[in-house]
Write a structure and sequence with these properties.
Elements: H1 9-35, H2 45-66, H3 74-97, H4 101-122
Helix pairs in contact: 1-2, 1-4, 2-3, 3-4
């Protein structure tokens, strides 16, 4: 499903934010429960949900609205931005989920990879 390219930047951002939160939070929960095999008694679902929401809300606005003012051309912006998001979210997950860096790096990598892929399918670049 491709959305019409003539929608406003703000509408594109909100769609992107919703897709990012949904995809990344789902990946985080699946990785924690099925890959790391961490039970809900050890790491409650509400903490996993909060981590997914918080990380996306804390990074996506910077990626969309702040970084483009400073980083050019577009391929460099995407590369630097996604690398920055990966690092910031991995560090955030250390504090939000109380997991070691190795695990939070895996979470951040796969959550961001999944959201990039789904985002490109739902909302292709300008």
């Amino acid at each position: 499903m491709h959305l019409h390219a003539n929608i406003s930047i703000e509408a594109r951002f909100l769609i992107s934010l919703l897709v990012t939160v949904a995809v990344e939070t789902t990946v985080i929960i699946c990785c924690i429960r099925f890959f790391f095999k961490i039970a809900s008694l050890q790491l409650p679902l509400r903490r996993c949900l909060f981590a997914g929401f918080f990380a996306s809300f804390a990074t996506l606005p910077y990626l969309w609205f702040v970084l483009p003012a400073f980083v050019h051309p577009y391929p460099l912006l995407v590369t630097a931005g996604e690398l920055g998001v990966f690092v910031v979210e991995a560090v955030a997950y250390i504090f939000l989920l109380d997991l070691p860096l190795r695990k939070t790096a895996v979470l951040s990598f796969f959550a961001n990879l999944a959201s990039i892929i789904v985002g490109l399918l739902v909302l292709p670049p300008f």
